[in-house]
Give the backbone structure.
Amino acid sequence: MHEKRNHAAEAADALNRIRSLMPKAGLREREAAASRLEGLSHRRRIRVSRDMIASLAELEERLKRSARDLRLREKNKPRISFPRELPISSHRVEIVRCIRENRVVVIAGETGCGKSTQIPKMCLAAGRGIVGLIACTQPRRIAATTIARRIAEEIGESVGGSVGYKIRFQEKTSPRAYIKIMTDGMLLA
């Protein structure tokens, strides 16, 4: 009986640690942990065993690893600059604030003002791209690859590092990417 109480207390402690780690972890790990916890909560009678405690410990370790990875992503994100000659750059502070404060932001501007190349970088400046990728769509394959090259060039890298692209039959994106430019069809797929 005493061993069962110890297992129950151990499991409760592990669950509390897992819940506190979830907001600090990546999206995939959060979803996996939430799914696992939901599965446990739907059971009427949970028999706490050593296997369950080991499974919770493994889940906790995955969340810790993910949180460390996110801290490294934040630390290693590329330096961003905005070309003064592009009209959208003069609205950078306002746009970054809007991106931080809202789930959806609609930005309209003249052709050639820099929307396609600067908004993904503004998203990065607003803190996006750490937990997940910043996805930017373009209607054509050539536009997607050209914009990816331009953004990568502006941050001083080559395509396939912090900035990648995905078009039909071709992808040049690394696991350490922050921004991914893709055709509309790739996003839908």
